[in-house]
Design a protein that fits this description.
Order of helices and strands: EHEHHEEHHEEHHHEH
Number of domains: 2
Strand content: 5-15%
Largest sheet: 5 strands, parallel
Strand order of the largest sheet: 2-5-1-6-7
Shape: globular
CATH superfamily of the largest domain: P-loop containing nucleotide triphosphate hydrolases
Distance between the termini: 14 Å
CATH architecture of the largest domain: 3-Layer(aba) Sandwich
Length: 195
Amino acid sequence: MIILGLTGSIGMGKSTTARMFAEAGVPVHDSDAAVHRLYEGEAAAQVEALFPGTTLNGKVDRERLAKVVVDDLQALRKLEQLIHPLVRKDAGRFVEAHRRKGTPLVVLDIPLLFETGGTDRVDKILVVTAPYEVQRERVLARPDMTEEKFEKILARQVPDAEKRKRADFLIDTSLGMEAAREAVHRIIAELTSVN
């Protein structure tokens, strides 16, 4: 089984690309979705213990938590030290389940693949990219996003140029949906073809 790590900086089209793999029948583990599940269950009490007042009805209230960690790098690091291992464990269960089934290819959608040292957990890396102006326009179109927030997020991520250098595959999402879908199908064919 091949584990393809899918990553890319904010606003590069990673979620859309992950959906294209899923639509093509490739199982995808979504790290962001795993965090949502953890916030609603397993991790809620631990988050509350670290940051009192950030849960509501036994679930992490993302807005309350964001207010605590958004401008506090130490608090953000503490949160990441709690959550990242739990997400890795969740992804490990996903991979093992598919290994037992004999699934030929799975995708781990990991926004911070390089930043969290996750490259050793994947066989190949796909980076989604787009020109800076396209990225900026997409991100600033999001609700509650400001130029300042965008710059802070970018500053915490490995630069796009560095990610591209370390990739086995690249998809430029600024070329449109059809081009991205064709690229996804080419990658699937290459990784699942029997030599």
